[in-house]
Amino acid sequence: MRQSLVQCTCRCLAQQRASLHTSPSAGQSTDGDRARPDRQAGLDYASQQIRRQPLERQGPRPSQASHARQQAYASAHRSGYGSAVPPPANNAQRYPHQARQPDYRQRAQPSRQPYLQPNRPPIDSRAPPRRSDTPLDLRPPAQTAPRLPNEPTEQYEPSDDRSNRPHRSRASEPRKHTVNRLSIRDTWAEAARERQSRQVAGKPIRPPPRPRARLSARRVRINIAIPSVTSIANLSRLLGYKLARLQRRLNAIGFDDARPDRILSADDASLIALELGFEPVVDDLNSFDIYPDPPASDLSALSPRPPIVCIMGHVDHGKTTLLDTLRSTSVAQGEAGGITQHIGAFEVPMKLLDANASDSAGTVTFLDTPGHAAFGAMRSRGANITDIAVIVVSADDGVMPQTREVISVLKQEPNVSPVVAITKIDRPGVDIEKAKNGLLAAGLEIEEYGGDVPCVQVSAVANIGLDTLVETILAVSEQKELRVERQGVRVEARVIESKVDKGRGNVATLLVMRGTLSVSQHIVAGSVMCKVRQLYRPGGQAVKEAVPGQPVEVTGWTQLPSAGDECLEAKTEKEARSAIENRKKRQEALALLADVEAINEKRRVAAEEAERLEAIQEAKLKKANSVLGDLEDGEALLANALPETKELRLVIKADFSGTVEAVAGAVADIGNKEAKVKIVLTGVGDVSNSDIDMARTAEAVILGFNIKAPKPIQSAAAQAGVAIHLDTVIYRLIDEVKQRVIGLMPKVYDSKVTGEATIAQVFDITTKGRETSKVAGCKVGNGSLARSALCKVLRDGVEVYSGKLSTLKQGKKDVDEVRKGSECGISFEDWQGFEANDALQTYELVQQTRHL
């Protein structure tokens, strides 16, 4: 087999040698062949290397022989011999004895001829030499030739030593050279020598840079819809980020708490999405709302507006009585408890205040605010819409807590001009200077002490100083030059109060600030809309329109507006509905945000508490001696660390929305860690069946303020087991809630010692059943020993028993009580471990009075 393979290879090489030495035309050798007599030696060397290949088993496979032949050609080419000898082009030339079948793959094979550049002679030694005296050396220099991609640095050199021969795996190592790579290498070498010969002024001509794909500099952001509330874990799924990666990014941008259950608001989630390259989707339709018109630049051309005067001060300092005297009414006599419990808006003609005023002088609008501590929100609303604030201070009481609160509220309203009225100066023994000094200490400087606040001394009962007070109010209003637009602007008003009237439905008292409010207009207050049906003056007179500075009652509301809301006119009903829907969405988002903050805070506190309890438990376990005792102590610790907080659930109903807010705010903070108040529902109007159903479901108490509960409602509440408490005075209502909260608190008892005795001797007695038991012979030292009382036995000051007496005998008789100085026999329930000289005490448990 080996001999046949060698003979075949020699015949193949002889055929190729004959074809190379044959001229293209005459079959003779060319000048190039004569110039290179060593070409035959190169071919002989290649054939010798093929014959020297070792044979394994039956001889080399055709692929191995082909590889050896390629290695021989490559070695001859590197050494400068046989560079013009092309390798066999196909399998027919490699293996003539197997060339019986035509190779159909030869049609699709590309040409293996070297790449020829245009107008350039082929790189072949058979081509005629150039017109140069120096013959061209076709061997490429190793230092200037560029390295082929993935070209191995070590080449295989034929050797007879089989131990040094590398073993190549056909599957892992590619062939080191192919015909195409050799041709391309020759082409690159020729191009390199051509560039060296075309140097201009010592600067080589560099090839043009390889074109690169252009990347867009604009960063594309993906639109993504962000929910109103989401957790970090859900946001990672929404953005397509892994949770750990998102947490690392959050920590990098400044988020301290990146727990997976941390709830994010829409704003926080949008900022995170923007930071990560996303674009949060913004809906322009949801941003529509109604806003007031900008103020006029020239006030001189506007119509004058009546001044709005707010009467403020501490409770029971004479505010309503002073206002009744100014407008010649008697409202204060009909108020429950003698105090004002909601804002009242009144319009007083100027002629009634000033006798010298003309009939067309106009009016003054007065607001009467409550003085009780529970109505702080009402006082703040009154200060926001007023022009002049009359601070009423009683001459006998001086400055009180609500007076200081009013002064602090007015300091935050720079557009409000304060006027001080010291009332009740007709009472004997009053100290007016004390009241003035109290105002100065509270931060209000009156004119007598170098300030700019007028101070008037009045008495509404004796009608003293009222004219001076009216003149002061009118003078301050003239200085303010109150002017406002009546036409051509959007109507603006403020909600003073709102209530449910049986004959008129939902009614709200508005104070018009700008524009003219008329019937059939569409107005929006908060998240409630209204098509004005009727307008009523404070006296009950129906009117068609209301101008700035006038208080009116408006009907036609879809729901009750909240006191203090800003009321604006809508051009159409569609515009009003769009604004209402968007405001409701924003309110829901704010409510969700508040819930989110509460949940996050609750989880944070729970986590901190769990860590604290875990640390306490570990310390307790290390310190204790017994494992069982440690577990019991740990359970007791957990039970005492997290006491159960009981709740008094309330359903609050009142006559006005402002009073509902005041009652809810007054009772919401009642309680402590043991018991507290939880408001389930608030509403305006009388108690209804739906309120009873809600209270029964939530196990709540119905609290009514200035409302009624009809007898059928009371019967239904009694059948459902729902308690209803109604009152017309707010401080009595607050006291009722406090007592109910105290009733929910755990009972605490004190032990009161009722008798003391000493065990003098221990006796053994035999009962009828021939059972032996012990009896303690005692002598009463203090108080008396009662058989029904609780007792405890002390030994060396340490309690050894606590329980009840089983028997108490004096002689042979059973007695219920033994007094001081007497002797008796005593036995205890289920205990006989007493000894002589033990101390015995009887006591009773006395319940403590709890307070908030």
UniProtKB/TrEMBL annotation:
Keywords: GTP-binding, Initiation factor, Mitochondrion, Nucleotide-binding, Protein biosynthesis, Transit peptide. One of the essential components for the initiation of protein synthesis. Protects formylmethionyl-tRNA from spontaneous hydrolysis and promotes its binding to the 30S ribosomal subunits. Also involved in the hydrolysis of GTP during the formation of the 70S ribosomal complex. It comes from the Eukaryota. Residues 17-30, 61-73 have a biased composition (Polar residues). The keyword Nucleotide-binding applies. This is Translation initiation factor IF-2, mitochondrial. Residues 304-483 form the Tr-type G domain. Belongs to the TRAFAC class translation factor GTPase superfamily. Classic translation factor GTPase family. IF-2 subfamily. Pfam families: EF-G_D2, GTP_EFTU, IF-2, IF2_N. GO terms for molecular function: GTP binding; GTPase activity; translation initiation factor activity. PROSITE patterns: G_TR_2. One of its GO terms (cellular component) is mitochondrion. The lineage of its organism: Eukaryota, Fungi, Dikarya, Basidiomycota, Pucciniomycotina. Residues 17-213 are annotated as: Disordered. Residues 31-41, 159-176, 183-197 have a biased composition (Basic and acidic residues). It is found in: Mitochondrion.
